[in-house]
What does this fold into?
Amino acid sequence: MKKLASLGLAAAMATSVMAAGHNFEINVSKKGAPIQSTMYGIFFEDINYAADGGLYAELLINRSFEFPNHFAGWDISGKVKLMADGPFDKNPHYVRMEPAGHNDKHTMIENRGFFGIGVKGGEEYRFSMWARVPDGGNAKIWIDIVENATMGEDQKLGNVGIDISGKEWKKYTAVIKPRRSFDSAHLRVWGDGRVTTDLEHISLFPTDTWKGRENGMRKDLAQALADLKPGVFRFPGGCIVEGTDLETRYQWKNTVGPVENRPLNENRWHYTFTKRYFPDYYQSYGLGFFEFFQLCEDFGCEALPVISCGLSCQYQNSIRDEKKVHVAVEDLDPYIQDALDLIEFANGDVTTTWGKVRADMGHPEPFNLHYLGIGNEQWDEKDNPVFTSRLKRFMDVLSKKHPEIKYIGTTGPDSEGWKFDLLQPRMKELGVDLYDEHYYRDENWFLGKAKDRDGNPLNCGAMRYDSYDRKGPKVFAGEYACHGRGKKWNHFETSLYEAAFMTGFERNADIVHMCTYAPLFAHVKGWQWRPDMIWYDNQNMFKTVSYYVQQLYGQYKGDNVLACSMDKKPVAGQDGQDGLFATACFDNAMNAVIVKVANVSDAEQEVKFAWTGKAKDLKAGFKSAEQITLRAVGMDDENSLDNPLKITPKTEVIEANANEFKIPAKSFQVYIFKK
Ligand code: AHR
It folds into this structure.
């Protein structure tokens, strides 16, 4: 036995019992199914303040005064009037600030941001607004970033004055540098004591956004996404694609063009859970389809937009009201046209209508869209093909006009059951390229031990895809996460089970072409749904263990599956396999064999990698090797804002030709053997 370096957790594992050894047979010569570049990706939905208040770096809430409560997020004092004939037709409201009537009185508006405004001392913040002096002449506006809950003498963390002039609307900008950090500042805008001024689209961004873009993303959060090395990026949802009703569905055309004129939309997550109710949660669309495509380009991954198929959320709408809440099949043309226009926006020449919109936004080159999702969690009724009748209309038109695009249908909201059973064969009949599966399930499901109400085993766990039809559409596991029983969220154990489960994705790479964990982001003060992959407040963020699992799969994705078995059976936590899950692949760029092993049992497991293959490969051996370990002291341990690095992968160099390992109880290991 070649003893490998201890992980310093010996004490915690002192009670572990060493189990009898297991042989993994791994064929290093025979390259199996290619692992798609899209295999491990990210799924973004504006839930948990993921866009406004999260990735989108705008620091002010309700910047255009378009919330139904037009002053939501703003405190006002003095003479402030709401006006509705502003310069942006889709966002017509603005404020008129009139002199308060006395030199010692001030007209003032103050924005509280998203759970406050997080600022860092010494860094620059770019303020901007549209303004005019309606009666002509000049006026002065003061902008203060304030620590309004201050104990100190001066509330101002930083301020700037802006001179405005003339009756015409103009954009004004200024930079403010707060003198110290504060996580819940406010932005105060106060007017000239003598002159009436009009203000619209009042905005504050950190200057240091991701890639320095003006309408940019929060740098730490975008960097965390880039570090996942995603192969595909699904956006913009989720349920918000469908809308609670048709009116509030996500309409991509409203999210492109100048940000000032992108109309506000409701966000269904503000009211979905009355226990976690956020009345000020709307979608500004500052992060819109252009920005999504741009992020895909930054990350070097495929874009996967999802569009409404004319069905508003089926959970929220009774099928009895079908005519009221869904678009009739014969009236779907505008929805299909939206899809065609989206393809033109992404790929069309600059001379086309939507290609020009893209070019005018600063991107004349196409975005090279290859995938399109039609519908989110849609389903058919047993006697009414609510979804597939609509999907068929889309497919008939789109696949003829754009055969170069791969279309993605869905098997509905469940991993099994009548909806799934009805939809799965219909996806094949309709000829979609992939279908989107969703499963938020418990530990048993992820470990392949779940049963239905009658006690029959469900098709779950790492063996799920071994039995799938190889001639049907490919699988996109578009939303999944292990939801621990007993109200456990983002604790180590569930993430470990995700890692174990994901060996089944890799082993079945011939049929599983994409997977994206969900949801992606959550603001610690504004979440509606958990677990989530990345958490943050206004200043800091932390990555969950699930993030690190995804990252390990993304970084060590490999190009081809290698056969890996135990007693001729897939290593998938089967009976007699002592909680071991494993897969192997070959990575061309690294010129390396990669073996991923999860041990979900309570005992350390002895494992021997028994290499098989061509004599020359076996003789050549490996030049160097590394082992990456992800484990925790306690199964309920988790990362947090206070302790963001409590559980992270640890890399160590191991002997190049080591082949006997002790896999610690409850751990995930990645071995990289370089040729
Ligand atoms: O990820 C949260 C929600 O879960 C998504 O919006 C929806 O598709 C699913 O029900």
Observations:
- The pocket of alpha-L-arabinofuranose is lined by residues 45, 47, 237-239, 376-377, 413, 438, 479, 518-519, 529 (CB under 6 Å).
